[in-house]
Amino acid sequence: MYGRKKQGSRGMAYLRGSPSYVWSTGCILGRGATATVYQGVNKMREFDVLKKVNHENIVKLIAIEEDLESASKILVMELCTGGSLFSILDDPLNSYGLEEEEFLLVLKDLTAGMKHLRDNSVIHRDLKPGNIMKYVAEDGRSIYKLTDFGAARELEEDQQFMSLYGTEEYLHPAMYERAVLRKHGDQRFSSNVDLWSIGVTLYHVATGNLPFRPYGGRRNREVMHYITTKKDSGVISGVQRDHTTSSIEWSRDLPKSCLLSTGLQKLLVPILAGLMECDSAKMWSFDKFFNETTKILSAKRVHVFYVNECREFVLYLHNNSLHKPAKLASDITEHVFKQSGVLGKNQLVFFENLLFDQYIAGASSGSSSGAASVPETNISHPVFLFNRELCDVSVSASLSSQELENGFKYPDFNQAVVLDEDAATAKIWCSVSHAIKRQVERLSRAHAHLSVAPLQLAQHLETLIGQLRRHVLTAQLHSCALERQLALISRSERHIADLRPLVPTPCAELDKIHALIQQRQQNVVAVSESLKRADQETSALETKVVGGQPLYRIWKVRKAECGSVIGYDETAATYVNKIRENWQALARDKMAKTLSYHDEQFHVLEKHKMQQTSVRLMSLLQDRSLTTTTRLAQAFHTWYREALPYLRQATQLGLVVESFGNASQWHAQAAKTEDEFDQLVSQFVNVLKARFPDEALSNGSPPNGTMITADGYCSRSRVSRTLLIELQELKRQQHEILQIVEDSQEIMCRVMNIPPSTSNASAES
User: Distance between CA 469 and CA 725 in Å, rounded?
Assistant: First the structure.
């Protein structure tokens, strides 16, 4: 609301009040011949709103009482010792925005507070970082709370209002046009004015800067309105570099200086674009804003360290990925590709010395629901990503010395003592110093991750080779069983061949038996040769990788040669604290307005100390931290180049061994051979029966095809006795074949540690 106060009134207080209203003498909206117009608020409206809302993320109203002297209404509210979000962002520590954990906390609390207001049909109308307070709970948790409801009012979803409230930089363009540019009109506004303010606030929190910045700041109001109304849909920032509108730099992305991970930025940018949309038809609704932020806040985060580039990133996995292990593994592969560029087939992902999909499968099998389980990761305990087709390992471009020189430049101090300018310059120095400290910490983490990354790969290689050895041994056992089976079948075939004289004509059944045995023998010989080569290659890998753990020993020596970064983080923190003390001293001098001669000398000394400390801080980053980490990355590059061929060989060998088939396939092959042989023998027996029917053998004449000896015709009893002996021997050998197959199955189960029942079930399936 706008109050009017007659000129000539006395009093220098910044805030003035009446029984129902409070206004600021520093917020002058206009002057006339007889009065000055100030911006003010209705006290009772704020009382009413605060009494209606009650939520953890809204500053609690403790009591409404009267001043003992003036009898004016006063609000008693809970104390938020963490200060306002604006003061937090104003600290040089947060000049580039909040870090990811704190930003997500602000997003969660801001969303929850605004949802409570909307559920109670209340609009805030002056949402900004200055009206968001940080409360520190007894358990140490930080809670952000909305405050200052002087401009708030009840407004249903379909209602509109005409009164003007808010802070210029956070105002909806339509309200800015009327309240700031003084353009008359009868335009009405809806609750979506809060959505615009939320978008600007979130951008400010994420980057440390306002999204729309005209040249010259808030004094350049026409350009400010031009930027917010003429920007294309999807543009989330516009910065004017000089007096011309052609110098406006539009952007659809957050700046490179933003501290948020790429994964979070990709989710946040569409939200900002939807909130800061001047076209009401395209602007998001509160429901959509709440839904999208809920997706971010409920997503499961996976921290990843990409070893080949020494780079960190975060995956945001939504709940629909967490139901089945296969779905989760597929989604992770896709997310990793989007952020690293590594193709799925080339991704080698580890967590706690296990392949990531194996870890997920193991965790899921232990879950009662069978749902996929995502490991708990953090920035210090990430998932490791290797590129199996790229042996290059280097410090990522964002940490290179050239990027550091371009990104972290200290401004020059004025040689003279200019208090305002010196304080502003010192604040920038402090901001840059905090950024350098963060880079030192990133390099320290990269150094720590690089130190253990080879252990992950070496452990995987040993596990892989151990699996190869077990699979080769199992395949050899099955191969031996098949060889014994074929040997028995071949012996049976020779016994059956003794009956060939009983069948003088060519016998197709005997020929098929012979062909079957020859084919199976050729297959077994080929498999045996392949197994022999696989066994030799596995033994060679065991000697190179497992025996004496040479990969571990080599890496231990090379890592020791690269040096350590222990203490670098603490040293950087000490330097930054000193620079902060220098900045605070210069800020105090600014507040003093004038300095004595001796105070000026101390002022100059503070600037000199700040310059000296910053030189040491930059040297710590470039000459020590970056150099040591780069040296370790080079050592790992050499080690990885040597280890990668072993990995490729083991992987290829695994495919060869896998081609031999599993236990059920070997068992099926043995059973198939047995069935085919049994079927052919049965057919041959039927042929014999057809050759020697009882009717033919009962008369005295020799039947066709009867075996003739030197003594004359072979008697029926002699033929029958020979046939019976041969068939009994065949039956015995077939039983022996079955026993061999079963024995091989039992041996395989013992080697693979599989319960026999499971093995039999697999074989039957």
Answer: 45
